[in-house]
Amino acid sequence: MSDSRLRISDNSGITVVEFVDRNILDEANIQAINEEITAVIEQADTPKVLISFSNVDHLSSAALGALITINNKIREKTGQLHLANIDPQIYEVFVITRLNKLFNIHETTDEAHAAFAG
Amino acid sequence: MSDPRTHIEDATAVDLKRERTQISTLIDQILALAETHNYGNSSLFAIRLAIEEAITNAFEHGHEGLDPSLSIRVEYAVTPNQIQIAIEDQGPGFSPDALPDPTLLENLSKPSGRGVMLMQAYMSTVEFNPAGNRVKMCYCRPAESA
Question: Are B56 and B24 in contact (CB under 8 A)?
Fold first, then answer.
């Protein structure tokens, strides 16, 4: 149960989340990821979260759903969510679903860091 | 007698439980077969995504409220020119035409409802049987990698 599928660190008040797995497909793992990031959001007054996909080769619509849930929760607390390092094939999934319009997506984590306002 | 639109000639059939190792092993087997026919990386990405979505739909929605130990049937046939996959659940079926468009602005923040549209985006054809509990997807080899 304590086997986290995430690496979570703090960088100047920004929570940086990276994935351990290359494939974000398993429903149980996606649920666990959702719960772990939600716990981070709930602890913060105004959450600032950067999710890096640098190791990720595949993700499913269930993973997209978890990201949307996380985004909704962050917005409820007037926080910010930025995504970075998305493989071109996965970025195409965001484009097809038009979720590139919903999320703030950056090529690199440096660009994502710079985009956090306030 | 199976529905002719979703029938696959000379298919390999596997009954699959909702268990991650079984699901991953089967998808890896299908993709390994595709690799022997030199399907490229973008083809393998598309096929993996579509199968994952179809299997998830079958268990998550097709078997919603039913015995979680029920299996689904996966049939596949891989040839040099096309990859056909059919997935059938034991549920009552659904109407794919009734699905809301997840790309509409008012639906963008909804966390579910993208599986079928991704299957349609990444596969050449996606057809459901009249009952709506069996889907057949076909991936035709792109001209540039033939």
Answer: no
B109 closest CB neighbour out of A27, A62, A68: A68
Task: Compute the distance between CA of residue A67 and CA of residue A73 in angstroms, rounded to an integer.
Answer: 10
Classify domain B4-145 at the CATH topology level.
Heat Shock Protein 90 (3.30.565)
> Which residues in chain B have their CB less than 8 angstroms from residue A72's CB?
109, 111
**Could you please report the per-residue DSSP string of A45-94?**
SS-EEEEE-TT--EE-HHHHHHHHHHHHHHHHTT-EEEEE---HHHHHHH
- The ipTM, to two decimals, is 0.93
For residue A117, CA distances in Å to A64, A77, B27 come to 24, 15, 43
What is the CATH number assigned to the segment(s) A6-113?
Answer: 3.30.750.24
The full set of domain ranges for chain B reads 4-145
The structure's pTM equals: 0.94
